[in-house]
Design goal:
The complex is a heterotrimer of chains A (388), B (367) and C (301).
Chain A: H1 2-22, E1 34-41, H2 48-64, E2 67-68, E3 71-79, H3 84-96, E4 102-104, H4 109-122, E5 126-128, E6 143-145, H5 150-164, E7 170-175, H6 179-196, E8 202-208, H7 216-225, E9 229-231, H8 236-248, E10 255-257, H9 264-270, E11 278-281, H10 291-303, H11 312-331, H12 336-344, E12 349-351, E13 354-356, E14 368-375, E15 378-386
Parallel strand pairs in A: 1-3, 1-4, 4-5, 5-6, 7-8, 7-9, 9-10, 10-11
Antiparallel strand pairs in A: 2-3, 11-14, 12-13, 14-15
Helix pairs in contact in A: 2-10, 2-11, 3-4, 5-6, 8-9, 11-12
Chain B: H1 2-14, H2 16-35, H3 38-63, H4 71-86, H5 92-95, H6 103-106, H7 112-134, H8 139-159, H9 161-164, H10 179-197, H11 200-210, H12 212-217, H13 222-248, H14 259-271, H15 276-292, H16 313-328, H17 341-357
Helix pairs in contact in B: 3-10, 3-13, 3-14, 3-15, 4-7, 4-8, 4-13, 7-13, 11-13, 14-15
Chain C: H1 7-38, H2 45-62, H3 67-90, H4 98-120, E1 125-126, H5 131-134, E2 137-139, E3 142-144, H6 146-168, H7 170-180, H8 182-187, H9 192-217, E4 220-221, H10 227-240, H11 245-265, H12 273-287
Antiparallel strand pairs in C: 1-4, 2-3
Helix pairs in contact in C: 1-6, 1-9, 1-10, 1-11, 2-3, 2-4, 2-9, 2-10, 3-9, 6-7, 6-9, 7-9, 10-11, 10-12, 11-12
The chains are: A alpha/beta (388), B mainly alpha (367), C mainly alpha (301).
């Protein structure tokens, strides 16, 4: 028994110490000439590449418009490590320690969802940049977004396959461990079977896990089903390997996918085999839809003269920052709740990726998507699709 | 009646220091619960959950000498049980929007405490199935089989969409933020572990750790004893997982990748395999340390633009630390010792002696 | 669930299974050798495999060294890495409790993964193309990539060479002696350290060959690419009977075929593909704890 209780001692010590320490945390950020905005992104871990690209867009926008309401805007960047437990801690830290008035991010819907409760209970508005999962904003008055949603993207690609590629039979390869891929596959299936009127027009489905490298098994099954088109939304590395192995097996059907393909690694890993792969995305730097888009492209080229192309998520990062500043200006104060109300009332805001109006769910109602393809090793604009 | 009073009196006389500390501890938690902001509260909650899971791991690995690496899997079971049974029924349709929740589950909602215990029990059932074949075998097979088991759990949870919502995970789990839930559970589990370790069972556990063959010769039922330890460990881990889900408010299969287990491994190795107080201290050191070492991942640490500080360095430091401890301080902070009053008095004496000899200052000296 | 599978599809799946299985076999040999001698699950083996992939990538794609020289350098560096790991992380613990050794192995694996992420970033690198090995040719409706035929041949040749070394050479005899009885072997004047180092060198060399062939077939290089193959190949070694080289090859092939055939016959279960290895492991542990070709092993008092 003696041990029992004395063991508790160590616990007592640490808790009281921790309680003691926490008394002295920062309280100084109420100073009035700075407005802090949190940038909540994965900078390490599996999603680091996406996080970096979004931060680039936010920082570029911050350089262009460093002030609002006569106050300096300071960005506080927090790494959520592509990990949910870290994500909630990072979001709490932005709000509690850094006292930010709004949060931008995160790449990866599940990380945004994890932060959802934190921003909701603390009443700090957050703007998701490229998180396309409907769950991010559903049932949360404090989460907004500047990109379109999975259902929209699934519909766009189903229409593209049916109308432009004349596909009657489609095979789907989905990354079951990735919410984005599963969502897209589901919405694609729904709208494609509606278009064809034939529930069996999805002739084969293959599942794989993030990090898999061998897809010959599922591809051999798909080859036997002989589809006209293969829809394979998912992570860029795995997708590139899938296309490579499909070509080696003698599958000639075209591959179509979503915005996650638009990375340099997709082309370097896939090589000549990904030529002709088609994907939907948010933005095209050779063909900006708005004046703001042209400004963004010009500024980006100035800041990063050695880059070949601009990632769509960078443009979304830019839009997220600009839309938030616009809301702060309309709110006339840096009060988080006032900013939230102003964000919810956003109407016809001219972003680099198109006109943004926030609907009753907090989502950007966009009806236009860009279709790109890989041509000579470069992502090339093909078409833009409008869905009503 | 008089007798019990006498007993309590005698007990207090003997353990007054401990009693005082217990009161300080409870007051400390109470103060912390009322006065810290939500960021610190979240960290403290995480510490308590790490205490629970690490202690469970130490019970199996440190005290019984069975090398199990299934913590992430057992946590996943506990976490998902809590998630599935506590999410408000009205928000389920919105969460399971790709594939509706299985009808037999869709309308069941349980109070948090019931779901938490159920999560622990579900872990026990899983542990029984994995333990029955594996605990009969040589130790290192258990390591790979439990590791494999935790991967299977993750893969199964990814694929069973109508129960777990697959990769989309479950959100809107009613959250706990009060420290009493986590610290209350941690205290209960610490006390239970201490009582267990000092019971006949505990001695049997240790005898297996020291020498399996000798233990068997002495009449210890090897399989039954190992299984007892394994199941209790699984129960605690499942409960820890349930608290984890309620702390974050959301679960998805990726959280339970097997590298999560390595966190707990580092904790028990650092604290000492077979030391309860060591595990508790190490849980705090590692959890708070991970937060404190964040600057390693930031390119502008110390205001200097040093190229070595960039994302990923923190994990390198952590894994390096694990290697250093294993290679050079194999016993960890505490070895198999406990931080009792006697132990501290002894340390205090030896430090005083040392200080008396040489005039060097030496703080702490816990190990 | 079989949706009218044609003979052609079935044969194609068998070809797929043969090449995956042979890759598993190559990596499994390294596990089985180390376990046979040290009774240690070398958790770092999968990460040694990963490092070999990076060595090759850097040699060809970054430093533009001709591929045949790069292969030799890769094999050399990987052997050095394996031997160093043993020297630094395992040898000091040889007399420590088994658990410490196992934790050390996990620590090395974790360290290599984190160092690789830190140095090479988490982004995938594209492994250089070998058109001669990857351009498919077709017989009937069946597709063959030359690399898929080269892999089983290399695996078979290396296994035979290894069996020759183990059974016919002096160092092989020493290895067998150490595997049977460590202490007696020491008393008989066998230089234990040398034997263990050569075991690690050979195992790592096989991992390097495995990595090169793996990347020719699946051309992306990632810091965590060794984790899943590492676990699976250890299981392959257990299936075949750990400590037995032929068993490791057999186990690798069984695992490769089971995975591919599960995908072929139960397309709805493809998401569970990575779980099948562990399910087989648990079944084997239940009914044949010594594996298919393993000897009965007694715990020493």
């Amino acid at each position: 028994m003696k041990k029992t209780l004395s063991v508790l001692l160590s616990l007592a010590l640490v808790v009281t110490m921790a309680a003691g320490c926490s008394g002295g945390t920062t309280t100084s950020s109420e100073d009035s000439d700075v407005i802090k905005i949190g940038v909540f992104e994965p900078l390490t871990g599996a999603n680091a590449a996406g996080g970096e690209l979004e931060v680039e867009g936010v920082e570029l926008a911050n350089q262009l418009r460093p002030e609002v309401l006569g106050k300096k805007v300071e960005l506080v960047i927090a790494d959520n490590k592509s990990d949910k437990a870290e994500a909630t801690t990072a979001a709490a830290r932005l709000i509690e320690k850094d006292k930010v008035v709004a949060i931008l991010g995160s790449w990866g819907s599940s990380l945004s969802i994890a932060a959802g409760d934190v921003v909701k209970t603390n009443q700090i508005p957050a703007v998701a940049l490229s998180a396309t999962n409907p769950q991010v904003t559903a049932g949360n008055d404090y989460y907004f977004r500047v990109c379109f949603l999975d259902p929209f993207q699934g519909t766009v690609m189903a229409n593209y396959a049916y109308k432009n590629l004349n596909a009657k039979k489609v095979a789907i390869i989905q990354e079951v461990s990735n919410d984005y891929s599963v969502g897209l596959a589901k919405f694609f299936t729904d709208s494609f079977t509606k278009l064809t009127g034939d529930p069996s027009s999805i002739v084969a489905t293959g599942n794989y896990n993030t990090g898999d490298q061998d897809f010959n098994g599922i591809l051999t099954n798909i080859k036997a089903a002989n589809p006209d088109v293969i829809f394979a939304p998912g992570n860029f590395t795995e997708s590139a390997l899938i296309i490579k192995q499909a070509r080696a097996l003698g599958i000639t059907a075209p591959f179509i996918g979503g915005d996650t393909w638009e990375t340099n690694e997709f082309i370097t890993v896939g090589g000549a085999d990904v030529e002709g792969a088609v994907m939907s995305t948010f933005f095209d730097d050779t063909n900006p839809l708005t004046e703001a888009g042209k400004t963004f492209v010009a500024e980006y080229k100035k800041a990063y003269p050695d880059r070949d192309n601009i990632a769509a998520v960078t443009a979304l990062g830019y839009d997220g920052y600009m839309m938030t500043l616009d809301a702060i200006e309309r709110a006339g104060s840096a009060d988080p709740v006032a900013i939230r109300d102003a964000l919810a009332a956003t109407k016809d805001f001219e972003g680099a990726t198109g006109m943004i109006t926030i609907d009753e769910n907090g989502d950007a109602s966009k009806n236009e998507a860009i279709i790109k393809t890989v041509k000579n090793g470069i992502f090339t604009y093909m078409d833009s699709v409008t869905i009503d | 009646m008089k007798e019990t009073q006498n007993n309590i009196g005698a007990y207090l006389k003997l353990h007054w220091k401990t009693a005082v500390f217990l009161v300080v501890l409870l007051v400390g938690i109470g103060l912390a619960d009322n006065f810290v902001d939500s960021y610190v509260r979240r960290l403290l909650n995480l510490c308590a959950i790490y205490v629970i899971v690490s202690l469970a791991m130490n019970l199996v690995n440190g005290f019984t000498g069975q090398f199990s690496l299934g913590q992430a899997g057992f946590m996943a079971i506990g976490a998902y049980t809590v998630a599935v049974f506590t999410v408000p029924i009205e928000s389920r349709a919105a969460i399971f929007y790709l594939e509706p929740m299985a009808p037999f589950l869709a309308n069941i909602q349980l109070p948090f405490i019931v779901a938490l215990i159920l999560g622990g029990l579900a872990s026990v059932v899983a542990a029984f199935f994995i333990g029955s074949p594996c605990l009969r075998l040589r130790g290192d097979y258990l390591a790979i089989a439990t590791l494999g088991f935790s991967e299977i759990i993750r893969i199964v949870f990814t694929n069973t969409q109508s129960i777990t919502n697959g990769a989309l995970g479950i959100k809107s789990i009613p959250t706990i933020s009060s420290l009493w839930w986590t610290y209350g559970t941690a205290l209960l589990i610490i006390i239970a572990t201490v009582l267990l370790i000092n019971s006949t069972y505990g001695r049997a556990f240790k005898s297996i750790r020291e020498d399996e063959i000798a233990a068997e010769a002495m009449g210890v039922g090897l399989f039954k004893t190992k299984m007892t330890s394994f199941l209790i460990g699984a129960f605690f881990t499942g409960v820890g997982g349930g608290l984890f889900a309620a702390l974050l408010g959301t679960v998805d299969p990726k959280q339970f990748y097997f590298t999560l287990t390595y966190n707990f491994l580092l904790i028990i190795v650092l604290g000492g395999m077979g030391s309860i107080s060591g595990t508790i201290i190490a849980s705090f050191v590692v959890t708070l340390g991970q937060e404190a070492l964040r600057f390693l991942d930031e390119p502008m640490a110390f205001g200097l633009d040093l190229p070595i500080f960039r994302p990923g360095l923190r994990m390198v430091v952590f894994s390096f630390l694990l290697m250093v401890i294993v290679l050079f301080y194999r016993k960890g902070l505490m070895g198999t010792n406990e931080l009792t009053w006697d132990f501290m008095a002894l340390k205090y004496q030896s430090i005083k002696k040392k200080l008396g000899g040489k005039k060097t200052s030496n703080e702490g000296g816990g190990n | 669930m079989v949706v009218g599978m044609t003979m052609e599809t079935f044969l194609q799946q068998l070809i797929n299974g043969l090449s995956v299985g042979s890759l598993y076999a190559l990596i499994a040999i390294g596990y089985t050798m180390v376990y046979g001698i040290l009774r240690l699950i070398n958790f770092a083996h999968g990460d040694i495999f990963m490092m070999a992939a990076y060595f090759t990538y850097f040699g060809i794609a970054v430093f533009v060294i001709p591929w045949y020289i790069t292969f030799i350098i890769t094999i050399g560096l990987t052997m050095l890495l394996g031997v160093t790991i043993e020297r630094v992380a395992y040898r000091p613990l040889r007399d420590a409790p088994k658990t410490s050794l196992l934790i050390s192995a996990i620590g090395v694996s974790f360290l290599l993964e984190n160092v690789a992420t830190y140095l090479f970033s988490g982004k995938p690198q594209a492994f250089p193309e070998f058109p001669l090995m990857t351009t498919p040719f077709f017989i009937g409706g069946l597709s063959f990539q030359p690399v898929s035929i080269v892999i089983p041949i290399v695996a078979f040749v290396l296994m035979s060479a290894l069996l020759y070394i183990i059974n016919k050479t002096k160092i092989g005899m020493a290895m067998r002696a150490v595997a049977v009885d460590y202490d007696t072997a020491k008393l008989m004047g066998i230089k234990i350290n040398g034997v263990i180092s050569s075991t690690f060198a050979i195992g790592s060399a096989l991992a390097a060959v495995g990595a090169i062939l793996w990347c020719m077939k699946y051309p992306s290089v990632l810091p965590l690419m060794g984790v899943v193959p590492g676990l699976k190949c250890f299981i392959a070694a257990v299936i075949g009977g750990i400590g037995n080289v032929k068993g490791a090859v057999l186990g690798g092939l069984i695992l490769g075929f089971s995975e591919v055939l599960m995908v072929a016959f139960f397309p709805a279960l493809t998401g569970y593909r990575d779980a099948i290895a562990f399910v087989i492991l648990i079944i084997i542990l239940l009914f044949l704890p010594n594996g298919l070709l393993g000897k009965k092993y007694m715990e020493k008092v």
